Structure formats: structure tokens, C-alpha cells
Amino acid sequence: EVQLVESGGGLVQAGGSLRLSCAASGFSFDDYVIGWFRQAPGKEREAVSCISTRDGSTYYADSVKGRFTISSDNAKNTVNLQMNTLKPEDTATYYCAATIDPSIVTMASGRSDYWGQGTQVAVSS
Predict the structure, then answer these.
(1) Residue 7 class from Cβ within 10 Å (0-12 exposed, 13-18 middle, 19+ buried)?
(2) What is the average pLDDT value for the chain, to the nearest integer?
(3) Tens digit of pLDDT for each residue in 17-71?
(4) Closest CA to 98 of 88, 87, 85, 107
(5) What SS3 string covers the chain?
(6) How far apart are CA 114 and CA 36, in angstroms?
(7) Separation of alpha carbons 20 and 81, rounded Å
């Protein structure tokens, strides 16, 4: 059974930092694209960032480039999202996602095979 378990959300002031972690199990971690989506109230879900655990290629949404960094620890089956210089508009529920499709373009376009339960991120102004 595939499981994606997020942790690390919380409340932070604008300009602060948070680190989200996604612990994956139930599949061959080295063969997937794993990433993060977010959805704010009243808005569509958007792909934030993803990484290929096979070759390390990454994708970032324009809104987070230069502020967020995604990384994978293949030994621990974990993907992390370091979020710096947070803004109120980053407030959302963040979901970990995984797809067997080897192209990061697939997840960047909004598609995924598996989803976590989500973790809340709130940024106060």
C-alpha cells in the first residue's frame, strides 16, 4: 500500500521559514517523481515543486522560485520542501504527491497517482 505522510506544517510570520517533509512507503522510491501541491480556500490546486528521485531533476512554480527548495533523501524515502521568505499568499494546505510517470512535466501539469492527507501552512502578515 502506497503511503505519503506529510509533516512540518504550521503557523509562521511573513518572511519566516518552514520545512515540510514527506515520508513515502509502499513503492520503489527511486523510480518516482515526488512533489508538493497546494490548495488555498477558494482556489484551484497547483503544483508547487517536484523532484525526480531517479535523476534529481526539479520543477518549481514561478511563484516559489528562489524561495522554496525541494530535495530527496533516497536512503530515508523522504522528500523535503524548504520554504523560505514565506508570504501570506503561500497560505494553503500542502499535499505530498507521487507519480510513476518519469517526467517531472507530468506532475508540473497537475497530475499524480498518489496523494498524502495534507498539512496546513499559514503565513501571517
Answers:
(1) middle
(2) 96
(3) 999 999 999 988 888 999 999 999 999 999 999 999 999 999 999 999 999 999 9
(4) 107
(5) CCEEEEECCEEEECCCCEEEEEEEECCCHHHCEEEEEEECCCCCCEEEEEEECCCCCEEECCCCCCCEEEEEECCCCEEEEEECCCCHHHCEEEEEEEECCCCHHHHHCCCCCEECCCEEEEEEC
(6) 11
(7) 5
pLDDT number for residue 30: 87
Which amino acid type is present at position 52? S
Q: How far is CA 58 from the centre of its chain?
A: 11
Task: Determine contact, residues 53/72, Cβ cutoff 8 Å.
Answer: yes
**Count of Cβ atoms closer than 10 Å to residue 29 Cβ:** 20
